Each structure stands twice: as C-alpha cells, then as structure tokens.
Amino acid sequence: LGWKFCDADDYHSPENKKKMAEGIPLNDEDRIPWLCALHDILRREDSSRQDAVLACSALKKMYRRVLVSGASAIESNQPEQPGENAVLKVLFVHLDGPTDIIAGRLEKRRGHFMPPELLKSQFDILEPPSAPENFITVSLEKSLPEILLEIEHAIFQG
C-alpha cells in the first residue's frame, strides 16, 4: 500500500513488556495508557494526511473505541452509534483463525517479549468486532496474498 506501518508492541511501556515476559496477562489499567498513545500516533498520522497501518491486538470493543476516539471513549459507557464521537476513520481488520494456527505462529516468533502461553488469556477477553464498528473479518487460513487482496479490496472498494 505504501502506507506507514506501526507495530503497537513497539509502544508498550517497559513495565507492560516485563509483565508479559513474566507470563502475566495485561489488564485494562495496563492497556489504556498504551491505547491512548496509539490513538495519538494515529491522530498525528491523520493530521499529516499520512495513511497508516497499525498492527494491534485491540481485543475489546472499548479498546477499539479508544483507538478511534481517544481517552474520551473511556468515560462514555453509552452505546455508540456509527460515526458518533469518531475522531479518526479506521477500518479494523479482524484476523480470525483457529487457536492452533495462531499458537503455531507464536511458537515460531523469536525475540518477542510476549510468550505463547499468554495466547489463551487474549482469547479469553476477545470481543470480535461487530456492528456498528467499521471492520472486516479475514480468515488466517487463507494464503497471505489472498488476505492482502481481501484487505485491499475493503480499503479501496469500500
């Protein structure tokens, strides 16, 4: 796409990285400052008219709301209407697949602070995107070229 790429893991605090490396799952308190920082990065890119891809495990609906709207999303527990309070236009790509496929990929990853043992804790809190969120779900069982084509189609064809 020629877009800027950001890996959300690069923006975790040293405390979050240490906690995960010790096999302790992050909680909402750990994640909120991180998500707010990610929102600020996305907002900065948007302000400079730079399209960006952010790889991020935005596991809960509230986390995705923070990415789109910033800290104000935390204070509001009201159901959101499409586009309401949205600061940024974001398409969430939910990469969905069987646990064993994802676990196998995590096992191959080297030098990362999050051990594969934390995968279950992520599935335990996962809230897959749903309406009115702006999202697509793409199967990880497809080939990489098929996945990319599906994402590109959603971005450019709407």
Give an overview in words.
The chain has helices at 14-21, 28-47, 61-69, 72-75, 99-108, 119-125, 144-157, and strands at residues 4-7, 52-55, 92-96, 135-139. With 158 residues, the protein is an alpha/beta fold. The two termini are 15 Å apart. GO terms for molecular function: ATP binding; gluconokinase activity. Belongs to the gluconokinase GntK/GntV family. Pathway: Carbohydrate acid metabolism; D-gluconate degradation. It is an enzyme of class 2 (transferase).
How do you describe this structure in short?
This protein is of the alpha/beta class and 158 residues long. The protein has seven helices and four strands.
Low-pLDDT stretches are: none
CATH topology: Rossmann fold
Order of helices and strands: EHHEHHEHHEH
Average pLDDT metric: 88
EC number: 2.7.1.12
GO molecular function, one term: gluconokinase activity
Organism: Anhinga rufa (African darter)
Keywords: ATP-binding, Kinase, Nucleotide-binding, Transferase
